[in-house]
Amino acid sequence: MNKQHEKGFSLAEILITLSIVSIGMLGTAGMLVTTIKSNKASSSRMDAASVAQALLDEYSPNPVAASGNNRQGFDWNVVPQDLGDGRTLLSATVDWSDHGTPRSYTLRTILASNANYGSSGNGNGNGNGNGNGNGNGNGNG
Fold first, then answer.
1. What percent of the chain has pLDDT over 90?
2. What is the pTM assigned to this prediction?
3. DSSP letters along 39-88, please?
4. 75-100, pLDDT tens digit by residue?
5. Could you tell me if residue 8 is left (phi over 0), alpha (psi between -120 and 50 degrees) or otherwise beta?
6. Strand, coil or helix: 111
7. What order of strands is seen across the sheet that includes strand 87-98?
8. 29-35: long-range contacts (C-beta < 8 A, 24 or more apart)?
9. 52 burial level (CB within 10 Å; 0-12, 13-18, 19+)
10. What is the mean pLDDT of residues 69-73?
């Protein structure tokens, strides 16, 4: 037989091509698994941030210490800390496990009592501050 007139691929060429394609697919599969894990971790962080924000919204009117679990699958606690001058630091911490690794997300806000920002001051300002415009307010807003 004359090899110059034969068409097609040899078995060796096909095996080499399949090997190269298989290696490429394994690399792609590895990247896909990593992307899925990263996406799940990101989703968990976003859910934890949402729960922490909801906790701050819930406990801001009456900042008291509280804790619980199973709020969208998360454990949580809320801790108020008196900063003085009518201000309170309110922290909401959400805990969860990511494939056996403990994770935590904390959101904080500073609350100020209304007494510090009302219209009952004794300043002699011109009403440009938080007062009621007749000099009884803070006056230096």
1. 43
2. 0.59
3. HHHHHHHHHHHHHHHHHHHHHSSS---EEEEEETTEEEEEEEEEEETTEE
4. 999 999 999 888 999 999 999 998 88
5. left
6. strand
7. 66-71, 74-84, 87-98, 101-112
8. none
9. buried
10. 81
